[in-house]
Structure formats: structure tokens, C-alpha cells
Sequence to fold (288 residues):
Amino acid sequence: MKISPYFYGHKTIKLMAYQLLKGKKGIIFGALDEKSLAWRTALRCFEEGAQLVLTNAPVALRMGEINKLAELVKAPVIGADVTKSEDLKKLFEDSMTHFGGKVDFVLHSVGMSVNMRKGKAYTELDYGFNQKTLDISAMSFHRVLQTAYEMDAINSWGSVVALSYIAAQRVFPDYNEMADAKALLESIARSFGYYYGMKRKVRINTVSQSPTKTTAGSGVKGFDGFFEYAEKMSPLGNASADDCAGYLVLLFSDLTKMITMQNLFHDGGFSFTGVTEAVVASMKPDQA
Fold:
């Protein structure tokens, strides 16, 4: 066990590293900037001994700061459009060449709502935009899994995790069509988890994370208000991006090798709390 400096913006946080991923090799999709869950996870995986490949869409590579992350975690950056099977095939080929063997874990942290970007409400969706949203945010997960499955690119007892949100189960109006995308994402994890588990003992799960102040999350209408509400509604408070990174390390490790086909809530208890005193008090400030 060692204590390593963990850089977050202008702050340095000291976290204990247990080398849970020593000798493991993984692909991280979706690291855009230092606020993103994928970015935080890449840093934590590296601290835990993993070797990494970073990937994102070509346009995101131009917009983001991924080369800075690549330097920190000593990883190559391989661009890939998740809507193109040929790009994903090349990604896995190049990754296995870099690693000198198969992959042990994959993080899918990819999502975009075209209708939300266009300001369209759920009751006035453009179905062409909706198809693109589902393709990028959910079917890309199936495409990643199918590509890896056909190429036998993931080692037995490997782990694949996609990031989800509780709007897949409950209504959060401003989350719009992304709720449908996350519901599909979770279904893919269950269905492909069965086939991948039966044939190659690869486990597949989704993690339903607290609202997190990432660049993408902060773009959701009403995010700040909901973030504060979730903080009051969660007995442990909102789980941070770094908390999520630690949980993902656990899921990539051998300590969770029998967990598969699950949607795992990582939200400080929000998902199973009916109401809290803090929420009630905020509704009646004169009686607080």
C-alpha cells in the first residue's frame, strides 16, 4: 500500500493506493477534461497499477485536454468514433498491440443528447436526433461489447462497466431523452452480460452515479438546483467523481469477479431514500 498525490485542479489530494489493478490493462472511453468521471477514473486506475489506453471521438480529442491526461498516466491516445465498428475494431487491435495481449477492463463513459443540445423538450423530440442520441449513448456500448466479443479481446474474468443514471428508472423531466438512452444502456449490460459471461467469463455492469459536476452534467437544465436537492436527499451526500473512480477500480479488480449484469447505485443512498429531514426543512424554512 502506498499514499499517492492525486491532482484535482489546483488541489492535491492524498489517497491510499492498494495496487488492486497491478498488471491489469484497460481502455478508458470518454475522458474530456479533469472534471470528467472518465478522467478521474483513469488517474485512479493508474495509481492502482493499471496500464491504460485512452480513447474518445476525434472531435472530442480536438476539443478536450486528453493529451494532458495521457502524459499523467503514461498512456497512448487512440481516437475512435463509437458509432463506427471499424474504428472500434482498430482501437482494440491497436490496444492489444500496445499491451502485448488482451484487455482486462473497459470503461464506457460516453453520452450525448442531440435533442437536449437543440433545446427540444421530451414531448417534441426530433426522431432523427433521437436516433443519434441512442446510437451514441447506448448502442455504442453494444457495439463496443460486440467488437470485443468477436475479437476475443478481453481476458477471462475481465470487467466492463458503463456509467448510467437513476433517470433510467425514475422520471427526471430535464434529463429528457437521455433517460431512455440510459435504460437501454442498462438493458444491454444485462443481455450482453449473459452471453459474455457464459462464453468467456467476462462480467458487465452499469454504475448509476450521483449527479456530478462534470462538464457534461453541468450542461443539463436545472443541474445546480437538482445537485443541491440530491445532496440533501442522500444520507451520505452526493458521491464525488473521485468516489466514483474508487468504486470503478473495485469493479475492475479481482475482488468483484462474481458481480455481473447489475446496475449498481453509487449515490450516497439517494436511490433508496424516500425523504430526509433536510428536504422537509427546506420546504418549510420558517420551521427549520
Q: What stands out?
A: Residues 19-287 form a domain with the Rossmann fold fold (CATH 3.40.50.720). The beta strands are 2-8, 11-17, 25-29, 51-55, 103-108, 154-164, 203-209, 263-266. The mean pLDDT is 93.
